[in-house]
Amino acid sequence: MSKPVKVRFAPSPTGDLHVGNIRTALFDWAYARHTGGTFLFRIEDTDTTRVTDEYIQAAIDTLKWLGLNWDEGPEVGGDNGPYLQSQRLGIYAEWAKKFLDQKDAYHCYCSADELEAVREAQRAANVAPGYNGHCRDLSAEQIAEFQAEGRLPVVRMRMPDGGTTFNDLIRGDVSFDHKFVPDFVLVRGDGSPLYTLAVAVDDVMMKVTHVLRGEDLLSSTPRQIRVYQAMGLAEADYPVFAHLPFVMGQDNAKLSKRNGEVSIAWYRDKGFLPEAICNYLALLGWSPGDDRENVTMKELTELFTVEKVHSSPARFDMKKLEAINGDKIRALTIDEFLDWSLPFLTKAGVISGTAEEIALVKQALPLIQERIIMLSEVPAMLKFLFVKDFVVETDSVAKIIDDASKAVLNRSLKELAPLTTWNHDSIEAALRSSLIEDMGLKPRIAFGAVRIATTGSTISPPLFESMELLGKEASLARISAALEL
Ligand code: GLU
Fold it and tell me: Is pLDDT at 345 greater than 70 in this prediction?
């Protein structure tokens, strides 16, 4: 009987998670959910110079925000913790000691300068760079000499001659000749473990069955397999690997953590919905076998298989993501749309959050639901309803209020003032019969002037509905004020 599936997502939070990480996390999650297995979340924070507590928290918050719930890991716990590598240092030290005792690993005393000199010589001789095995078989005297010099040794894994072949679920058989996989460092001179040791030890100890991760880590696989061997793991028990193709930028450049624009925090602040991001990323490099553009989280968990992941790089297309986000915003109920919009409105200072303001926002949201692609557009669209002492703000808008528009505004004022019923139908009827029919103006000219006067902008929700929500008093006051410009 095959083992229950356990998939892990194991970021090193040296910055905000980016699109590539999240696509990996999403596929990990989807595979775990599809198979009814376990989704494990582990923080690989052994690089203490680059990982910060803020980034760790941000990684946790991002997964939560996206709805990628985990069964084992930070905050939820589990039987195989701790799930922060910085809390597992003793475990790695024990394994490193065991590898030294077994002679799978050895102490290497080479200094940084000596290693650099070796690399230099390799470059000059045009041979593959890598550790030359200098300290593999030191005599007791040599060791005593290095120790007397006060050198702090690193622990290095001995790579046997030959090669490593493993079956990758996406790429098929992948082979590495050990000529190109030199002996590698497991533990630094200061006793801290390196990624290759920690990741392999944890995957084994946490009983991970499937490693789905970015293809940038493909070349580390033979080293990890070497660690499994030293741990005494039978080949049948190695985790199964699947290396996901890169997510490329539009210009074919690699997307990277350092590119701020692709951090998930950036998308959240712009007002992308997690569902849109998951929907878009799910179809970036995977498809269930048709050319659909939409997939829900439920469908993803039903349909996701690694076999359907493409082996060629996927290209990130912002326009597509925006279009999907617009679709998802339109699909929200008004209450959901309200919940998503309120933080944007308060953050922008448009509302303070009173019940009265919220009620007005709720009335106005249906007017803009069809028109926006990101939640960050909401404040600018609705601001006109909440500004107290209204002024037509920008010079460019003020310039549009010329003599011709003043004639329009004068007439509008005259027609609107006597209205006893103030709703979009009565406003529209009054303005159409006077401005379009009587004055013979084109709607763009006629209504454009009224729009600028009442909302302060050339872009606003539908005009008559906007004026209805604004109320008669404020609408007329703003038209009068525009006439003073
Ligand atoms: N911690 C590694 C990284 O963020 C990934 C580890 C893995 O998936 O094997 O690059």
Answer: yes
Residue with tokens 């329009």: 408
**Ligand 1 atom 6: residue of nearest CA:** 10
**To test ligand 1's pocket by mutation, which of 8, 17, 217 has the most ligand atoms within 8 angstroms of CB?**
217
Lowest mean pLDDT among 151-155, 212-216, 311-315: 311-315
Radius of gyration of the CA atoms of the chain, in A: 31
Of ligand 1's atoms, which has the minimum distance to the CA of residue 11?
Answer: 4
Query: Is the minimum distance from the CB of 217 to ligand 1 under 6 angstroms?
Result: yes
Q: What is the average pLDDT score of the chain?
A: 92
pLDDT band at 260 (very low <50, low <70, confident <90, very high): very low
CB distance 369 to 329 below 8 Å: yes
Q: Catalogue all structural domains in the chain, each as residue range(s) with its CATH number.
A: 6-72+247-315 (3.40.50.620), 88-244 (3.40.50.620), 332-385 (1.10.8.70), 394-483 (1.10.10.350)
- Report the pLDDT value the prediction gives residue 399, as an integer from 0 to 100: 61
pTM, to two decimals: 0.90
Write the residue with the smallest CA distance to atom 7 of ligand 1: 10
- Cα(22) to ligand 1 centroid in Å equals 12
C-beta of 275 in contact with ligand 1 (< 6 A): no
What are 319-336's pLDDT values in tens digits? 899 999 999 999 999 999
pLDDT at 2: 73
Q: Is 51 in the pocket of ligand 1 (CB under 6 A)?
A: no
Q: Which residues of 374-395 are buried (b: 16+ CB within 10 A; e: fewer)?
A: bbbbbbebbbbbbeeebebeee
Q: Is 250 left (phi over 0), alpha (psi -120 to 50) or beta?
A: alpha
pLDDT at 1 over 80: no
Active site amino acids: 257
Q: Is the CB of 12 under 6 A from ligand 1?
A: yes
> Roughly what angle, to the nearest 10 degrees, separates helices 424-431 and 403-416?
130
Pocket test for ligand 1, best of 12, 17, 194 (most atoms within 8 A of CB): 12
> Does 483 have pLDDT greater than 60?
yes
Longest Cα separation, the chain: 107
Give 203's contacts (C-beta < 8 A, 6+ positions apart): 8, 211, 224, 239
The predicted model gives 7-24 an average pLDDT of 92
- Going from the Cα of 399 to the center of ligand 1, the distance in angstroms, rounded, reads 56
CB 11 within 8 A of CB 61: no
More confident residue, 72 or 484: 72
- 142: confidence class by pLDDT, cuts 50, 70, 90: very high
Distance of CA 375 to the CA centre of its chain: 17
